[in-house]
Amino acid sequence: MNNRELSETFTLIANLLEIKGEVIYTTLAYRKAAESLLALAGDVNQLWKDEKLREIPGVGKSIAEKIDELLRTGKLAFLAKLEKEVPAGLAEWLQVSGLGPKKVSLIWKELGITTLQELAAAAKDGKLRTLPGMGEKSEAQILRGIESLSRRSGRIPIGRAWPLARQIIATLRKLPGVVAAEPAGSLRRMRSTVGDIDILVASRDSAQVMETFTMLPGVMEVRGKGETKSSIEFADGVRAQVWVHPPEKFGTALQYATGSKDHNVQLRQLALDKGLSLSEHSLAKTDGSGEVLCATEAEVYAALGLPWIPPELREGRGEVQAARAGTLPTLIEVKDIRADLHTHSTWSDGKLSMIDMARAAARRGIKVIAFTDHSLSLGMVGGLTIKGHAAQAAEIAAIQRELGDSILVLHATEVEIKADGSLDYPDEFLATLDLVLASLHTSLGQERDKVTKRLLQAVRNPHVDIIGHPTGRLIPDRPGADLDMDAILKAAAESGVALEINASPFRLDLEDVYARRAMEMGIPISINTDAHSEADLDMLPFGVAVGRRAWLTAEDVINTWPTEKLLDWLKRRGA
DNA sequence: GCCGTTTTCGGCCCGACTGTTTTCAGTCG
Questions:
Q1: Structural domains present in chain A
Q2: pTM of this structure
Q3: Element (H, E) at A35
């Protein structure tokens, strides 16, 4: 079992315990452990072998024993017993909006049904309204919830959530009386996927904001509408919330709503140490002698004796300690990027010719562009033969003369790492290119050992400069190869190859936790757009955001280096 | 069930909103 599978197992346990009616803190403990497992930067199997499971936050004696049992036997007696008491199918019901553990348990026990289909039928037949505490409205809400569930497909890629959020915010900012409107939650922290869109507004006229918000075009359902908070769902299942606070409280409110939960817990603790109680509304003195209102986040952090912490760092991964110690990194910014080392042209599956692509990149301030068209075996996208490369090289020489020094064009390749681990071109040919980026696209479902060994071959090939989108994941549908990331990082540190953060919002691969470990191990990072069109070039901020979440400074990312330094690095490699 | 520079016991997530209520329970973020 890998980190994700273990995490899902503990989430299931938490859900079943909740329906069973276990004390809330027990289920919270399982959820916390599940989250930690998912966010883990290393392989849980390695921690298990090293007997270090207890070092995972939220994993104590009991959960460590359960992980041990799962990894040894693939089964868990505790879960089997639990499933005898509570049918596992009920866990799914919790995703129906309007249904919580109490109602699930009530419906199950009173009506004796366990599947989502039976639940829908019971609601349609008017059976739910016969239960205590439930009426026609609850019944209708549950029916809508089931429909909404079939519309929704899990978490929303940030590439989809962000443009929608910008639109909503722009609309709200135009309203009279609105002083500020900002994204919050995981969207503001720039997580690669978000559960929903959270927006915070500073205004004294809450009614008008709520009116506008709930009447936005495309709204399918108003899930709630109050004075301080409203919630909507769009036709495609995306949900959005807005909170309205008076301007003088906007700082504490935005800080609170941005999270993460772990970050806020640590901040509240720090506040308590200073005799302050931090809430959504204010910083109150715990002795009751008054409260401080904060209009900006900077004031909140300053009151706690901290510099403002960028939202991307607020994951409870040491940023509060770093802020206290004055050692927060100066995070990389989009404007620091001057090279795009992974792009496609019409030589393979790109939409634009090289010169059009180079010009589009130059207009965006890019000084070096590498064309990494696909290699031979990726036939369906028109991979290049070696002969084709000769023709591409000639074209590059020609367009370089035309482009002058506005942008430097590198002749490169995205060479396929084949199922057996060999590369698609011979080493002698790779040695002739300016840059070699090697990627996995096929056979991603291989066993961990096999797929890891396969990638290791590419990591150790001296001609390979960058490993493109290392796991091959696609958000939100494909989880990516089950790599032993500890082994990959170790090998990368030895070989000096760069690992890519692919900026496509549907890849964002490496993930932040691995990128951070790579940086700590001294592995160079490369942030690239993997652009197949002009619009793709504008996805760069999503890749930079992953870098910021990984605590990267500009120096850690080869795309920020002066051209001479970058070319030197490329020359030293691949010899 | 986890955790600890005040605690090995007693805190942890609390406030807004909705619906079915008749003063509150359940859900949600």
A1: 3-151 (1.10.150.110), 156-245 (3.30.460.10), 258-325 (3.30.210.10), 334-573 (3.20.20.140)
A2: 0.90
A3: helix A24-39
